[in-house]
Design goal:
Blueprint lengths: L1 E6 L4 H18 L3 H6 L8 E7 L2 E12 L2 E9 L8 H15 L4 E7 L3 H9 L3 E3 L11 E7 L1
Parallel strand pairs: 4-5
Antiparallel strand pairs: 1-2, 2-3, 3-4, 5-7, 6-7
Organism: Chitinophaga skermanii
InterPro entries: Acyl_CoA_acyltransferase (IPR016181), Bact_Acetyltransf (IPR050832), GNAT_dom (IPR000182)
Keywords: Acyltransferase, Transferase
Length: 149
């Protein structure tokens, strides 16, 4: 049975999944990991979604205010042995619904070129590629997307 809950970044299940995410990204990003890790701190994130399967946290996603009307998607992750089942899309949809409830009109996000599964997820969920924004401008390893909510 799948259950999705809303929480904050101090949730221990979220922090556990973020550790797995960070380990996977460190392996993929190699020497570039320190730069990206510095942009992905979770201590002040107030909007986190956790996906539980049989009462075990197996997926997460978060969002934070970027600017008026715009939320940035952060820390999307599904446990490796639970992938390719649509769980990440469920997390993303839950984040989108929450952002709409809060009055946001647009989602933006950054992922890496070394994360083809993430690029596929966002494309499949009707996100459009945009020029890199903010601290990702000029970073060739970054791919940025947006979706109007």
């Amino acid at each position: 049975m799948v259950q999705i809950i809303r929480t904050q970044s101090d949730n221990t299940d979220f922090l556990g999944l973020v550790k797995l995410l960070d380990a996977e990204l460190a392996a993929r990003d190699g020497d570039d990991h320190a730069f990206f890790a510095a942009l992905n701190k979770v201590d002040m994130i107030k909007h986190v979604v956790l996906l539980y399967e049989n009462e075990v946290a197996v997926g997460c996603g978060a969002m934070k205010h970027y600017e008026e009307g715009v939320m940035e998607v952060k820390r999307m992750y599904v446990a490796e042995n639970k992938r390719s089942r649509g769980l990440a899309s469920q997390v993303l949809q839950a984040l989108e619904n929450w952002a709409i409830e809060l009055g946001y009109k647009r989602f933006i996000l950054e992922t890496g070129i070394k994360q083809p599964e993430a690029i596929s997820l966002y494309t499949k969920n009707r996100y459009q590629r945009i020029p890199n924004f903010g601290k990702y401008i000029g970073i060739e390893e970054s791919v940025c997307f947006e979706k109007l909510l």
